[in-house]
Design goal:
mainly alpha; 2 domains
């Protein structure tokens, strides 16, 4: 499982749907932002459709959130939630849940 570095050349297989393609990329270890860009490059999807497809990719979202947290380790829960909502274009309540979960895990660690 080698990860591509360029979403434009990470071409879907002939029988891939947008969801099977996204799940395959997730299985290969790609982050959500990479998958979103790849979906937009290879499928005729609106950004809303891309966001909806990626909502079920918990591992890819987790990879994305881990990178985001490593970039902003000192943010408070509220600021981190704002950054998550802004980066992933998701509702603030959903972002707040992710921020709480990540920070709680840090506090336990």
């Amino acid at each position: 499982m080698s990860k591509h570095k360029d979403f434009e050349t990470d071409i879907p297989r002939a029988d891939d749907t947008d969801l099977t393609y996204a799940k395959r990329l997730e299985q290969e270890g790609q982050r959500e932002i990479y998958i979103r860009k790849a979906l937009r490059a290879h499928f005729d999807m609106t950004i809303e459709e891309v966001i909806e497809t990626c909502a079920s990719l918990n591992r890819a979202r987790g990879y994305e959130l881990n990178v985001l947290r490593s970039r902003f380790p000192a943010l408070t829960e509220a600021r981190f939630a704002y950054k998550i909502a802004q980066t992933l274009t998701i509702p603030k309540d959903e972002a707040r849940g992710w921020a709480k979960k990540i920070i709680a895990a840090e506090d336990k660690g």
